[in-house]
Amino acid sequence: MDKLIYAVYFILPVLLLFGAKVYGRKEWNDEFLSLEQSKALQGFLAVCIMLHHVGQKTCASWINPPTRIQKGLGFFVPLGFMFVAVFFFFNGYGVYKSFHSKPNYLKGFFGRRILPVILALYSTTFIYFAVRLIVGQKMKGNDVLLYLTSLKLCNPYTWYVIVLPFFYAFFYLCFRFIKKDGIAVAVTTALVVAYILFGTTINHNDLWIRGEWWYNCVILFPVGILFAKFEKALVSFFKKTYFVVMPVTVLAVYPVYLWSRAMCNIYGYYGENWGAPDTILRRRISVCAESAICIVFVLAILLLGMKVKIGNKFLKFMGSITLEFYLIHGIFVELCAYTFDGGVKSPFRIKNLLLYVAVVYVLGIPSALILKKIHSLILHKEKKVQAKAA
User: Under 8 Å CB-to-CB from 71, ≥6 apart: which residues?
Assistant: First the structure.
């Protein structure tokens, strides 16, 4: 066992809290919802998601036989959906705040919000497709079509950037055609809930909505919108009750997490495997439990953020390449694992777990920077074309 891997549990808090400012009893970090703070937090969580993916490839029992399990990153394996919940919260919060603070925000919404995500999806899809060919994966013509369209995930870590454009589209349509703000918020929320309910009707498969991770944390998108709508009242309430609400919420994270795991163990998402007649109901009970822990987890982070302002060069840097790093690091996760996604033996397996993590991070950073540069050039040209057309 590589005991050095446990160093990550000491390194991560340092990376997060180095340079942080802690506010006194009567002071507040009024920037805890700012773009700078949210980007810094998401940059940090991108690293946690990387550890989640490495953990899955090395110690998840449903991927690895007992003889291949390496202990060390097991903590991160079940937490991926909670990390992504934070992203969805700020996605929802950000679009609502921008809509109300920027004139004509919906004009050019597709180019600003949706196109960059779709571009990131397909640029990494093509890169993964090339890598799959290089490592020797055999494909039929149907597989090629499904991979290149991303109907079957060529990049196994892209579900988030497939779902997000649909949610942005929900927001756009509601706020474009519904004039009353409260109704637009309600309909957007209803559409996301409808997506969740639809997801629970689909059995595990190899295409879109292939499993519960496609919907078990997405409720935070409308929660982010609702928080933004009632931000003034909510922040005022939290300030008045902070020294009761904050410790109760933070201390509740672990027991609510255990409860959600218990609910999933009792009911579960895999009823189709044993022919349960109430499989859909079981999934809906499970997703309610996991949605609850996501809400509690995100609220705990927000409450802590009211007293702790994070910020250092590392967080600022990671916050600037979060999307690209999120999407590209998985190539190196797969190349250095025992098997590449799809079952082909990985060409560069790294047995030392700490070295594995270091290689994925070190190679993921320049790859993300290159990807970001390419995306910026394409989007810049697109803006020029749109300007000429206008």
Answer: 1, 59
